[in-house]
Each structure stands twice: as structure tokens, then as C-alpha cells.
TrEMBL record:
GO cellular component: cytoplasm
Oligomeric form and interacting partners: Homotetramer. Seems to be able to form heterotetramers composed from more than 1 of the 3 IMPDH gene products (IMD2-4).
Root EC class: oxidoreductase
Binding-site positions, K(+): 347, 349, 352, 530
Biological source species: Knufia peltigerae
Name by which UniProt lists this protein: Inosine-5'-monophosphate dehydrogenase
InterPro entries given in the database record: Aldolase_TIM, CBS_dom, CBS_dom_sf, IMP_DH, IMP_DH/GMP_Rdtase_CS, IMP_DH_GMPRt
Record keywords: CBS domain, Cytoplasm, GMP biosynthesis, Metal-binding, NAD, Oxidoreductase, Potassium, Purine biosynthesis
Amino acid sequence: MPITNGDVASNGVPLNRDLEKLDWRNALEVLKEYKSRDGLDVHDLLDSKKNGALTYNDFLIQPGYIGFAASEVALDSPITKRISLKTPLLSSPMDTVTEENMAIHMALLGGLGVIHHNCSAEDQADMVRKVKRYENGFISEPLVLSQKTTVAEAKELKDKWGFGGFPVTETGQLKSKLIGIVTTRDIQFHPQPEDLVTEVMSKDLITAPAGTTLLEANEVLRKSRKGKLPIVDKDGNLVSLLSRSDLLKNLNYPLASKLPHSKQLIAAAAIGTRPDDKNRLQKLVEAGLDIVILDSSQGNSLYQIEMVKYIKQTYPDLDVIAGNVVTREQAANLIAAGADGLRIGMGSGSACITQEVMAVGRPQAAAVFSVSSFAARFGVPCIADGGIQNVGHIVKGLAMGASTVMMGGLLAGTTESPGTSFVNREGKLVKAYRGMGSIDAMEDKKAGGGGKDSKASNAGTARYFSEGDRLLVAQGVSGSVLDRGSVTKFVPYLIAGLQHSLQDIGSKSLVELREDVGRGKVRFELRSVSAQAEGNVHGLDSFDKKLYS
Ligand code: IMP
């Protein structure tokens, strides 16, 4: 006999004390008698009249049913109307986060790095070109020696870069005739440092022709037992180099972000909305750009709407992501202008003081839900940008409807971000990180000629001031973040964490997660201040928070 609601008190305690009569086999039947599911659906959660505007730490996702392995969880997600990635992770267009090295590695790992524009158009186009020219495993710009290089100089280069095995060409440049290769063994114990490398280099070379695949090159390297394999064109000119040590790790990027039918990595870069940015964009497009992001802290502007229209008309093959926005109304203007994607966030960035100084912005979970549920009606994917401090925040951003998340501070400490690590006053290894609206970034000479007076040409930080501004008003700070090692370890950790989280939630893919949230299957819980304290490590005298190994 199924138990009816009448047999239990409102708190579920059976009124009938005869336990014999309670049939555990009926648990699923009894569950159906409840009028609503446990927890809150996303609309109740984000009802700002009842709960205020929430951000990631204000709520939790309830666990669902695990019926599959974490490794089966698919993380494919669109970044624009036309382009999808295998990993929903992006790095911010900031000068302490994304230059070509980060862009290449984020793309290899299935995400995307958006190249910053706090530099000349030429430098930015050069970075885009390097991403597009990057071939998995092939060093497209190797260090090349000239015939006039001495053994001492070669030794110095080896010490500086930490690797040996330099090709020597007629002109000392790439695309010139290869005449030899200098290995560490050739120079290590050579008694006359002033001798030219041509006297010690190996001239008996094993090379491979341009167009050789990684697998073929691997085979040649294996048979030759050499450390380096120069790739040459039909005239014997050096075009790239393959290193045995790089090879094995580089064979393994099955998630790499590429357009269908293309072998090249996807390249994305940011620009502003000034007239000059049209010239910049032209250079980026010539370099092979696939996605452009209009970088503005308040994207709902005449300038941005016109820029979106201009880009769609001038470069129909280029996808344009507009933003930043945090409300439906802002989003509607950009969607109607033709944006292929939106970037959401205002004031949530870790190095950001916009909310404090400008009094505008929106807590990130509320912003992501509001904008992405509206944009979804037009098939426009959204990026949850800023405020991501851990894997849990990534999951929450995606559960709120974003297709991808963008990170600045979380990736700034990795090896692939620009700059080098240094030891701070407390003896910790750190890397510089600064908001693009910090005084430091706005005054940076890299941006086009020097200091305050040149701010009009200070491209990358244009999102934080207007043409006629006499005074720089900071919207960001400048500081440092802890060193995190390579993204080649950190991003796989984020991916694995994401898969485990979706497994706990019971959604087998990001598509399923968004659907399950929409139809109320995925449930949420508000988190009081003490619930937040409970959810963090507490009561320990000391602990070591190692996140992955
Ligand atoms: P994070 O991942 O929390 O560090 O946030 C990164 C995001 O902060 C970037 O993608 C930008 O949208 C935003 N941002 C970058 N610089 C500034 C700034 O100076 N003020 C406000 N927001 C910024």
C-alpha cells in the first residue's frame, strides 16, 4: 500500500508509528506526490525581487543522478553563431594575459585566447599571424644562426634559451639556404670559443620536405635518432624545425580549436570602436583573423552598433562578438545590429573597480542569466566574462546560460601569459596582472607612444576613457597573481573538474545542462553567508590546498 500524504506530518515524519507498514519500495511513488521538486528552479533562484541580484558564490547547484562516467561528458559549445569550441574556456584580451603564446596554447587545448590590443596594430597582426601559422609540433620561427656566429655566441644562446640545436643558414634567417646544424655536443667542449660555428656544425643533415605531417616527421626523427629535424622547401631553404622533445607532447592535442576543413588554429583578437580600429582590423584580417571581439566595458553604444554593422558588411566571413553587456536591453541593440556573440560582465573582474567608481554594473550570475536567456532566443552564444576564481564558478556561469567563460586573473599566473614570474616580498612566486582600466595599463608606453599624453592612441585601454578625457579615471588595479605553472596542466584540470561537476549534476553535456536548467530539471539552492562558510574549508588549524596533480 502506498503511503499517502495524510500518513505523515508536514516535516515528513510518519504519523503511523508502526514501521512495518512503511514500504521503502514505494519511495519513488511517494516522491511523485510532492507538488514541486526539491530546490529552486533557475527563475525562482534569480528572482531579484525576492533574492536580490546574485553572483556565483550566492548559490549552489543541487546534485542530480549519475548515470555515466565523467570522461563521457561533452564540453563542446558555441562561441559565435557559426563557430564552436570543444572546450568552453577563453582567456581575456588583456596585456598581462593573452599574447600569441597564450592564444596558441588555449587553442591547442580546445579553448581560445583573445589577443589584446594594447599594442600597435602591426604587433597585434603579427601575433594573429603567429597563431595562424602555428603548426602543431613545428617550430615556425626557430632561432637561426648565421655563418658569422661564433661558438661562444652559440653557447650564450643555449644558456639564455635553455635549448641547443640551432640551424645555420646562409643569411642567418629563416627561408634562407640551410647549411648546417649546431648541436649542444658540437659546442660544449670546443676549446676555441672564438671559432665560427661553421667549423663545428654538422653538415651531414637529415631534413624533411615542407608539407611533411607530424606523424611522418616523427618517423624520420625516430630513425635518424637526432634531436632536431629541419624542414626545408624544394630549394633547400629552411622553413621550420621540429624538435624531438616537443614532438611527443604536441601529438596530443585532440581538442585543438580549428575551423572545419582547416589545419590552422582559430585566431581571435580584440579591437576598440574608434575610426582607427577599422585600419587595425584590416591588418588583423589580412593576418588571418577568424573572430573579432569589440572590447568595451559598456558595449551598448552608437559606436559599437555602427562597428558591428560595418564589420558584418565589410568582412562577411569574420565573426564579431560585441559587448560588454549585463542587461537584456543592452543586448537587444547589439543582437539587432548583427552580433554573432555577446560578452557579459561589468564590474565582476578580479582587477576591476568599475562598480566602486562608476556605480554601474551587475552581479555576474544575474547578468549572465538575464542576457544569455534573451540572446538564446536568437541563437546568439554568450561569454560569461570575469569573476571566475575556480572550477565551480565556471560551472555556474555555464549553468546560468553562458556558452563559454572568459578568464583573466585565473590564467595570468601561467607560464603562457606575457612576462616572467618573480619572487614577491613574502617570497612567493608571482606574475604581474593588471586591469586594462588601471592607470598603469592606460599609461603604458607599449600602447602607442608614451605616457598620458598619448592616450588617444592608447588602443587597448580605450575601453576605459573617452577621446576628450583630460584625466584618467581608473576602473582597474594593477598587481600580481600567484604563479600557476603551464596552462597545459592547468586547463586540463579545469576541463576534468568541469566534467566531474556535470557528472554530479547529472548532465552529460553542456547542451544538456542548458536544457536541463531551462526545463527546471537542474535545481539550485540559495547560499546564506553561513552556508558559504560551511562550504569552504573550516575548523582546520592549517592546510595545504593543492588542486591537482
Ligand atoms: P577576471 O577573470 O576576474 O580577472 O576578469 C577578467 C575580465 O575583467 C576581463 O575579461 C575584462 O572584461 C575585465 N577587465 C579587464 N580589465 C579591467 C579593468 O581595468 N576594469 C574592469 N574590468 C576589467
